[in-house]
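I have been asked to look over a protein record a colleague put together. Thanks in advance; the entry in question is below.
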Amino acid sequence: MTPTRAAHHRIAAVLATLLVALSLGLFTPGRAAAASLQEVTGFGTNPGALRMFRYVPDGLPAGRPVVVALHGCTQNAAGYSAGTGWLQLADRWGFSVVLPQQQSANNASSCFDWFQSGDIQRGQGEAASVAQMVDRHLADVGADASRVYVTGLSAGGAMTAVMMAAYPEKFAAGGIVAGLPYGCAQAAGSPYVCMYVGAAQTPRQWGDRVRAARPGYPGPWPKLTVFQGSADYTVKPVNMTDLVEQWTDVQGADQSADAGDTVAGYPHQVYRAPSGAAVVETYSITGMGHGQPVDPGSGQTQCGTAGAYLLDVGLCAAYRMGAAWGLGPA
């Protein structure tokens, strides 16, 4: 069938409307139209044999913050960064994202090797590779070196603790989701004992493991936010307790919460240093299993997309972390 002249005019009008909508970004809410994930090679000696990806929103000026986001097992940089909401927030608030990615040659399940002594020490293995990514990214984009944050899920959460301990001078704060304290596998004698039972350490012993990772470091140490599902049977909630003990000890705080409330219906606690500064905060997500909390939608506090290990619980962990770190509105 041959379109009539009137039909041609209608088609032309529709196409014009589509072009206007695309130019205004109406079909990509919260995301820049042209920015995309880019792989970076040659970022250093890369002793951990990781891959580096990054996301820089179009037109991002120099001097903006950076979030380093570490995926969980069976995940990759692209799926994790988009699903958690970090790319959405990067566009909304104006910061860049560095995305380390594990390779199956290192770990068959694509887990970061948080339990291997050779990958968690300063200057060695995967920890050194992530540090080299940060240095390369800061040099390339002119980001604010005093506003670099690190976060991750599960094995990525455990590697977040590694980076905070081994390279504390590089990070202002960290966010651990369903993760484990630094040195847990070594303290427990097995990563599985650590995950399912926890390690028998006093707060001082936990803190000493962090201090030993960066001998003589005078501080300041990164602040910490922890998210943990109460029904997580892969990384048991005891690990959040151990994280609190570890990082309150490092920060010179006691193990009693100084403030508590509920956020989106979930218990939220804040631990303060003697100076009064909030140095550790926790979110216990009642009934949640193993994964990262997300809250899909277009509301101000919403972000993320539900999927495997990305759990819609009405609270977006990335938003809460970013707001606490001053990346966007509280």
Summary: The two ends are 58 Å apart (CA to CA). Residues 36-324 form a domain with the Rossmann fold fold (CATH 3.40.50.1820). The chain has a mean pLDDT of 90.
